[in-house]
Amino acid sequence: MLKDAQEILKHYYGHEAFRDGQETIMQHLFSGASAIGIMPTGGGKSICYQIPSQLLNGVTLVISPLISLMKDQVDELKEAGIPATFLNSSLSQEEGAERFRAVRRGEYSLVYIAPERLESPSFMNMLRNLHVSLVAVDEAHCLSQWGHDFRPSYMRIPEFLAQIHPAPPVLALTATATPEVAADIRRLLDIPQERTVLTGFTRENLSFHVHKGIDRDKFIRDYVKENAKQSGIIYAATRKEVERLGAKLKKAGIAAGTYHGGMSSDERKEMQDAFVYDELTVMVATNAFGMGINKSNVRFVIHAQMPRNIESYYQEAGRAGRDGSPSECILLFHPQDTRIQQFLIDQSDLAEDRKKNEYDKLQDIVNFCHTEGCLERYILDYFGDPESDTCGKCSSCIDERSVVDITKEAQMVLSCIKRMDERFGKTIVAQVLVGSSNQKMKDFSFQRLSTYGLMKGAGQKEVMQLIDYLVASRYIALSGGQYPVLKLTEHALPVLKNEEKVMRKQTVQPKKITEDDPL
Ligand code: ADP
Predict the structure, then answer these.
(1) Domain named Helicase ATP-binding: which ranges (predicted)?
(2) 39 touches ligand 1 (CB under 6 Å)
(3) Which residue has the higher pLDDT, 40 or 180?
(4) Which of 153, 248, 283, 327 ranks highest by number of CB atoms within 10 Å?
(5) DSSP letters for 175-241
(6) For the whole model, what pTM was predicted?
(7) What is the largest CA-CA distance in the chain?
(8) Which ipTM was obtained for this model?
């Protein structure tokens, strides 16, 4: 069947050869086995079910949460000559019923359905007389409570699958699954571990950059002006911020559009088209923008604020450079971003364990902002991709500041946390270290600690940045929560015992810190 698949690839899609992973996935499906494909955005996931849908005898159902995209996807397929259709809430009852009948008559081999459909008894009824040859679950990470985009409607999928006889193979697809999330998907959809097809997550043409403590507006304006002919997306955290930034850029003479969920669907469509057809060079948007936008020549994605986790970040940043040309992904970080995200998690109505999960994910992206290691490696490690080289082009890899030994300063911080019984957060620990005289110091009698004032002369901000670095370097862990508490990890002990050195690209002036032995 693979030979036929190759024919279809050439004939319908005009591509010469399969990409990494596509062939293996199809082999599993052709042998009747379920599989999970974890491939980066733009990796070519759709073909993995679209081609089998033309070769297997029966209907391929694709469960996808992207209702707004279904029509476009289906139109594209039809144009290529593939009989596809969709069933979702955008259809009237009559239209839906007519489509049902057409599917039953065998007019379509590929049917996209929204997960909400699975709740409809009439839909389930229709299925009873249908030969389903394959079920593809797109954006499969939505199944897992530990993923970044859990959708309750996806919980129905396992139950739904159990009702289809004979049981068809299932293909789960996602671009953003950590090893834990992938395991969860396999468990829920009954996919054996060995049917995991993980292609490299590396996007060779992307370079990652984090900038901290800079004037963000100025950076964005200068960057966009310097790259005047290039297409780019600027993600901002809120609608208000999108409007503000968009107005600023327009005032500076830049062809910038804005896009967020508060705009009417007509306005959004207009903006999106203008961007896709290069009438606008820059799109300032909330994360509502991007899903399924097939603009290949996006040369940069700037995050004006830190997003809430690595999954969202990689997905959004990954909208740059789909054509394979070098593109930049820039994250502008300010400590305030962390507090806003903590607040949003705290205010959400998630259950406690899921809140904790969100706090942990948030900490992972905060660490990404503070690490001095390769940023690309950091992301790949996060997704469990074994690729081990550093990228050589991210802002960490090209940082030429000299590496200095900061073991002594690290020991001061670590021992202070220990003396404070690992019960306090970053700000208070830093205040103790610089010898602040505020009321809290008195209330808790911190002045009596041997580590009080150990870093007298250093600024509180500087010490807090050092703590961020030690957290990102995994010497300190933060308990999840809106007010995280610093705790030592197992890596801290060898440092305290002088068995291991801590190195850092230097920004802190060591001479400002007193030379007293902390231990
Ligand atoms: P994903 O769903 O993984 O983000 P898509 O399925 O939308 O990616 O594919 C991204 C692009 O790659 C599409 O334009 C598609 O036509 C193209 N593509 C997919 N497979 C191949 C292939 N084997 N050879 C060349 N191009 C491919």
Answers:
(1) 26-195
(2) yes
(3) 180
(4) 283
(5) S---HHHHHHHHHHHT--GGGEEE-----TTEEEEEEESS-HHHHHHHHHHHTTTSEEEEE-SSHHH
(6) 0.84
(7) 84
(8) 0.98
